[in-house]
Design a protein that fits this description.
The protein is 16% helix and 28% strand. It has 8 helices and 33 strands. The strands form 6 sheets. Strands 1, 4, 5, 6, 8, 9, 10, 11 and 12 form a 9-stranded mixed beta sheet that branches. It has a 7-stranded parallel beta sheet with strand order 15-18-21-24-27-30-32, with no helix packed on it. A 7-stranded parallel beta sheet has the order 16-19-22-25-28-31-33. It is elongated and about 65 Å long.
Length: 424
């Protein structure tokens, strides 16, 4: 086995529960983004564009879609005999079957995988952020500082700092303190959950902390390395980075793609975003179709109006339908005369004729007002909304719904319909 200088371990097992019905049957990194991509395509493409050809993808929650999407890694040029992309689910050991219980525990369970490449450095990544980053530049910084651990950080507004792991570093970027989600942050340099470890240091820390329950990088491994007197450095990143962990930030990040000068550009020649592409026919816009400032996926047919939207592949928008400020994922059908406003509709849904989504005044959601907020209508995959009903704001629908599920033909703002068998 050829020794690799640096391999990447991509943590893609998260459920992303704050995305509500969008992740009821699919892991967060596999959620569609930007019309034709999935969230995991961004860190994977960063690896390829940074010259990293060995990536272990650690899956756990609802892994099927991710496994199918990644396959043997052809779109990312990761189908290699030596290295390449490998999907690493939790596996059964002879005495017990062990679920990954924390980010560091997941990496610990795959020590054998890492050891076969005997790397000098290991890059730890999260599979659910939207950004472009050259990890090679971060590795150069790690080497220059003779660091044992380098944490990618970015400045955040101080009032938001308590949501992150916060580092305190001197003028040479050497970290003197690390606090996980502090109540009263003393710095605004937030950890991005991207780490480069010298492999020897990582291995030693994982073995030392292996009996910690829910062993985690922010809570256990980083503090352990710090206490041991290892050299920790903060690599400051100032580009675009979005944690699309809430419906609001997910909707916002998609909408930013269609700005006149997008803050995050999908079309840069030198930093391509790679994905698994199905072979589909081109899109079709009928004579009466109106499309304005939108991304439209392949194989999509538009007979109505689309304003300021991100539309996936194979979607159909009926005659007289008007869709605004919405994300419509692959394979969804929107009926004739429907009006869709500020909605996120997952894959393979059916929205009946003359349905109105996103009407009336906002009201807090009755199931979970922290998740279903932002004035959005959220519809989980494979759902059906019958013709001639109206749906208010801050609402959630999951499953095959019927007329009788809508008293007086309406789901009022803040309401929820989740059919049995669909996760909340």
């Amino acid at each position: 086995m050829v020794r690799k200088e640096m391999i990447a371990m991509l943590l893609a097992g998260g459920q992303g529960s704050r995305l509500g019905v969008l992740t009821a049957s699919v892991a967060k990194p596999a959620v569609a983004f930007g019309g034709k991509y999935r969230i995991i395509d961004f860190p994977l493409s960063n690896c390829i564009n940074s010259g990293i050809d060995t990536v272990g993808v650690l899956t756990q929650y609802q892994p099927l879609r991710l496994n199918t999407h990644i396959g043997i890694g052809i779109p990312w040029d990761l189908d290699r005999n030596n290295g390449g992309g490998t999907v690493l689910p939790p596996y059964e050991k002879s005495n017990n079957s062990e679920w990954y219980t924390g980010t560091a525990n997941a990496i610990y369970q795959n020590l054998n995988y890492m050891e076969q490449y005997n790397p000098e450095y290991v890059l730890i990544l999260s599979g659910d952020h939207i950004y472009k980053m050259d990890y090679e530049v971060m590795l150069d910084f790690h080497k220059e500082n003779q660091a044992d651990v380098t944490i990618a950080t970015m400045p955040v507004p101080l009032e938001e700092a308590s949501r992150f792991g916060i580092v305190i570093a001197d003028e040479n970027k050497k970290i003197s303190e690390f606090e996980e989600k502090p109540e009263h942050p003393r710095s605004n340099l937030a950890s991005m959950g991207i780490y480069i470890f010298s492999f020897k240091v990582l291995k030693e820390a994982l073995l030392a902390m292996k009996d910690q329950s829910n062993c985690d990088f922010g809570k256990h491994i980083i503090p352990y390395c710090h206490e041991k007197g290892q050299r920790l450095f903060a690599y400051e990143y100032n580009g675009y980075w979005k944690d699309v962990g809430t419906l609001g930030s997910y909707w916002e990040a998609n909408m930013e793609l269609i700005d006149l000068i997008p803050e995050f550009n999908l079309y840069e020649e030198y930093w391509k975003i790679y994905t698994k592409s199905d072979i589909i026919e081109p899109q079709y816009l009928s004579e009466e179709a109106v499309v304005e400032k939108s991304i439209i996926g392949e194989g999509t047919e538009v007979y109505g109006e689309v304003h300021n939207c991100v539309i996936g592949a194979g979607v159909s928008i009926g005659k007289g339908a008007v869709v605004r400020d919405s994300i419509i994922m692959k394979g969804t059908k929107i009926g004739d005369g429907a009006v869709v406003d500020r909605a996120i509709i997952a894959e393979n849904c059916e929205i009946g004729d003359h349905v109105k989504l996103g009407v009336g005044e906002e009201a807090p959601n009755t199931l979970n007002d922290k998740i279903y907020a932002f004035g959005l209508v959220t519809i989980g995959e494979d759902s059906v909304v019958p013709s001639d009903v109206s749906v208010g704001k801050n609402t959630a629908i999951s499953g095959v719904t019927k007329k009788e599920d809508y008293p007086d033909g309406a789901l009022l703002s803040g309401g929820v319909i989740i059919k049995a068998g669909d996760a909340e």
